[in-house]
Amino acid sequence: MAKKSRKQQQSGGTPATVALTAAGVAYTVHAYDHDPAHPSYGEEAAEAMGVRPERVFKTLVADVDGALTVAVVPVAGQLDLKALAAAVGGKRAAMADPALAERTTGYVRGGISPLGQRKRLPTVLDASASGHTTICVSAGRRGLEVELSPEDLTELTDAILAPIGRA
How many CB atoms are located within 10 Å of the residue 117 CB? Predict the structure, then answer.
């Protein structure tokens, strides 16, 4: 996990929530008890928060032509790797090595947030996000989500909006 200042550690903030607060963006934190036995982090979050899975987005890290790229897609679907590559002008995409994704972002698998990453990576947000007033993404650890507008997420991450998810 990314290194936190003493104040951040005491307040329980994550790099993602610290970044949101610093940007002055409106957001809501949703905490729930994470069950390590649950087969899907994203579906678990949707169930625990009582939010439709189409509004809960998972953060995935992929390798596009040798460059790590963040993909943010609904937990109800899957990432279309070909579409992700095309969205960033690449030819080929594959899921990144989980250990590399963790080291690069500063977050653990199942808790990777598109916000407050150790190294800022190119980000693509699935176009379906724009159909919602707010969406939920990981706040930087398992069992913690932030709800914010897709416009704010796009602006804070310099994300490209593209149809990269599939049912």
Answer: 24
Answering whether pTM is above 0.70, one says: yes
Long-range CB contacts for residues 33-41, cutoff 8 Å, separation at least 24: 33/143, 34/110, 34/142, 34/143, 40/75, 41/75, 41/110, 41/111, 41/142
Say whether pLDDT at 164 is over 60: yes
Q: Kindly give the residue spans of alpha helices, DSSP state H, lying in 50-165.
A: 81-87, 98-105, 150-157
Q: Quick: pLDDT tens for 91-111.
A: 999 999 999 999 999 999 989
Residues 6+ apart with CB under 8 A from 162: 83, 84, 86, 87, 124, 125, 126, 127
pLDDT, tens digit, 9 for 90 and up, residues 123-133: 999 999 999 99
* E strand residue ranges, the chain: 28-31, 57-64, 67-74, 78-79, 93-95, 123-126, 135-141, 144-148, 160-162, 165-166
pLDDT tier for residue 12 given thresholds of 50, 70 and 90: low
